[in-house]
Design goal:
The protein has 365 residues and is an alpha/beta fold. It has two domains: 220 residues, inorganic pyrophosphatase (n-terminal core) (Alpha-Beta Complex), CATH 3.90.1640; 125 residues, Roll (Diaminopimelate Epimerase, Chain A, domain 1). The chain has twelve helices and twelve strands. The strands form two sheets. It has a six-stranded parallel β-sheet with strand order 3-2-1-4-5-6, covered by helices on one side. The protein has a six-stranded mixed β-sheet with strand order 7-8-9-10-12-11, with helices on both faces. Strand 9 and strand 10 form a beta hairpin. Helix 1 packs across helix 5. It is globular and about 55 Å long. The two termini are 24 Å apart. The N terminus is likely disordered. Bound molecules: manganese (II) ion. Manganese (II) ion binds next to loops.
Amino acid sequence: MTMQASAPNASNEDPASMWTSTTDAKSIAAWIAQQETLVLLTHTKPDGDALGSTLALARAINTSRGTTGAVSAAECWYAAPMPEWGAKMAIPTKFRLIDPPQPAPAVLDPDGIIITDTGSWSQLAPFADFLKPRLDRTTIIDHHLQGNSEISSRRLLDTKAAAVVQPVAEICCHVLGVQSPDQLPVDIATPLYVGLATDTGWFKHSNVDGRVMRLAGQLLDAGVDHNALFAMLYQRDRAPRLKLMARALDSLDLIKDKNAAIMTLTLEDFKATKAAPGDSGGFVDIPQSIESIRVVALLNEQHDAEGTFTKISLRSKEGEWNSKPAVDVNQVCQSLGGGGHARAAGARVRASLEETKQMLIEALP
Ligand SMILES: [Mn+2]
């Protein structure tokens, strides 16, 4: 799931400039059929939904044309870092890994570009120079509430979808001319399932609904190996991640009548535990096991060329608590320059860990 989002579009009268859908799955499949070569892009630091949606669609396109390997009609470009299991999952689909700030390669001039799981410039920075002269041949498939509509006038925005693989599954069916996802080849059903499973926290989050489970069931009928994917995604922890988890839990601060929890991780925590930047993924879900907790924040201290900044990840629980409504973390993060979904959002704040924590405490309801 992608957390960073640019500021929402102000209420603009021109529908073309609003963050709304302008096309549907069938029309996108028809557009794809007209493009000889395609590049699939997604947000930097691709997660399961980003990888799953691009790989499934690239495979559907290549399968429909009988192209593979070096002569693939469709290939995926990713901006590092990838999850540890990402490259293994991508094989044998043709993909390139770009290591920002290294720009996207100008070696290829595809006829069509498809962006999935984001529509925000802030998440597409490594691809911006490549994209800007080619916006007229770009299509966006996304499920986020905000984005930059000027990136493409062809947008399929399914903001009710838990994962972008849901609309992508429908497009894959149209591309391959099959009636429903249970008829998809297993090498396409599998990345779709990975996207669905990871964006719902292995079917635990409040975004799980009948539609999610129906697609999950159809993908299992297509032959997806549920146990193998669980082992790949959730049973591969390295010891440094558990040591980092101990530090995150040790930092747990319960505030606002124990309705909110804030955890902090410093650069020193990562260094001392030998943990990698992605190793804190999922920690923000853990304190939700406390009954009174309605909202959880994980603050990661980070460093770049401009100095120190703090990355905020926020999650909130569905439903009322003591007759108070669920916390809209998208709104909280927007007030801090970020955004995302109502139950999961994030922001980057150019301030120290302590300063950011104070700003967040003030921003929380
Ligand atoms: Mn997603």
